[in-house]
Amino acid sequence: MKGLALSSLRVGERYYLVNYGERFEFQLIEIIDAQEFILKDLYTLETYTMSQLIGLGKGEDLEIRSI
């Protein structure tokens, strides 16, 4: 995985994630555990978990960056 490690993500910060060529922009709302987070989409304002976002697998292009 390029970019930021999951352990460096912080509540309230905004990030984007690229996976399988798709880009998602979100704000981290809550940390549930080391691998699970509650996220809010910056465009639709929908909330979802990190596992839902990468539920179809982690592509070779998986990358998380700060906005």
Shape: globular
The number of distinct β-strands equals 6
CA-to-CA gap between the ends?
A: 17 Å
Please give the largest β-sheet.
6 strands, mixed
| Count of discrete domains | 1
Q: What spatial order of strands do you see in the largest sheet?
A: 1-6-2-3-4-5
Percent of sequence in beta strands: over 45%
Number of helices: 1
H and E string:
EEEEEHE
Mean pLDDT: 94
Radius of gyration: 11 Å
Strand-pairing-aware structural class: mainly beta
Q: Which stretches are poorly predicted, pLDDT < 50 over at least 5 residues? A: none
Descriptive account of the structure:
This protein has one helix at residues 50-53, and strands at 2-3, 14-19, 22-33, 36-41, 47-49, 63-66. The protein is mostly beta strands and 67 residues long. The chain has a 6-stranded mixed β-sheet. The protein is globular, with a radius of gyration of 11 Å. The chain has one domain (2-39, 57-66). It is 6% helix and 49% strand. It starts with a strand and ends with a strand.
Question: What does the secondary structure layout of this molecule look like, with pairings?
Answer:
Blueprint (H helix, E strand, L loop, with lengths): L1 E2 L10 E6 L2 E12 L2 E6 L5 E3 H4 L9 E4 L1
Parallel strand pairs: 1-6
Antiparallel strand pairs: 2-3, 2-6, 3-4, 4-5
